[in-house]
Amino acid sequence: MTRRKPLSTVVSESLRERIASGEWAPGAQLPTEAELGAEFHVSRTVVREAIARLRSAGLVVPQQGRGVFVSEAPQPQSFSIPDEVLQTLPETIALLELRLSVEVEAAGLCAERRTDAEAAAIRALMEQIDAMRADPGAVPIHYDYDFHLSIARGARNELMLSFLEYLRPLIVERLQLRHIVAPELTDSYYARIHGEHDQIVSGIEAGNPAAARRAMRTHLVNSLERVRAFAAAAGVAGAGMPALARSLFTGFAPGSRQ
Q1: CA-CA distance, 48 to 255, in Å (whole number)?
Q2: Residue 116 confidence (pLDDT) above 90
Q3: What is the DSSP letter of 185?
Q4: Residues 99 and 181 in one domain
Q5: Per-residue confidence band for 171, with pLDDT thresholds at 50, 70 and 90
């Protein structure tokens, strides 16, 4: 059975066609989020994700307080990952592996290059995100992506940051947290992630690249293994999922440091 394209993909492809055809010339302002949402009968969130795809491709440029405009000199898309690939778990896992290879080094560079103010801002953002503890049914598994982007900014490598920003609309909404966390394990899950985050930030604050890389690798590998476990159980009866989720947290108590 043919899979439907995500709504954000449908919208972004339509907008891309208007730019390519010249309907929207370089420098032209795009309609507002509300106008595009009404035209395509989608939410503003879908419109924002569609525009993020165009921005990642270098086709549009946002201007603070003014709106989004067609780039004067659109750049060719540097990182192209087909949507049909993203709709399958094996390729989603491959994306996570790719992300891991970039972010581990970004954490080390951040530990070397961040300012004291940036280190403090990274910790503040981490604490803010980790304090939310939203309903797993209402958030994606990568709810902490802004935290990861803040570390990439501190790495002072624009290519790393641009690549991770490109990945955001492609990877963040792939799975909901409820897919990998049983309801009774929500508190344990959030506590574990906070502990992993804290180890990363501690390495950055200490100016210890090896510790920051090690902590980031542990964090992302754990995330990857949770998705792999979900993929392995995708064809198993629902009764097996709580047991699988529990196995990921064996020996872990809320508030413990990993």
Answers
A1: 36
A2: yes
A3: G
A4: yes
A5: confident
Amino acid residing at 62? P
Contact status, residue 180 vs residue 244, Cβ threshold 8 Å: no
Residue labelled with tokens 């980790």: 130
> Residue for token digits 């930030």?
201
* 53 vs 258: CA distance, rounded Å: 36
For 209-225, write each residue's pLDDT tens digit: 999 999 999 999 988 88
Tokens representing residue 134 in the block: 């939203």
Q: What residue numbers bound the domain in which 147 lies?
A: 83-247
Q: How many domains does the chain have?
A: 2
Check if the beta carbon of residue 111 is closer than 8 Å to that of residue 208. Answer: yes
Residue 214 included in any domain: yes
Kindly state the tokens that stand for 243. 């047991």
CB of 176 closer than 8 Å to CB of 136 = yes
**Would you give the distance in Å from CA 157 to the centre of its chain?**
18
Average pLDDT in the chain = 80
